[in-house]
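Dig into my protein:

:::
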Amino acid sequence: MTKRQSEMLEIIQAYIAEHKYSPTYRELQEATKLHSISGVARIVDALCVQGYIEKRVAMARSIRVLE
């Protein structure tokens, strides 16, 4: 896991703990100061492939952290 991926995972976990639902890609972009939504998508997809999170396709706020 890269530093950026680790940071993203921590942000997702904290957001879900506080709000009880997952952040949007736009909220993740703002929290990480990334320049594009596609950068967020690449990191989220990498976390999915590595088994840290899962998400439903074409569904808003569907990121779920796996234990």
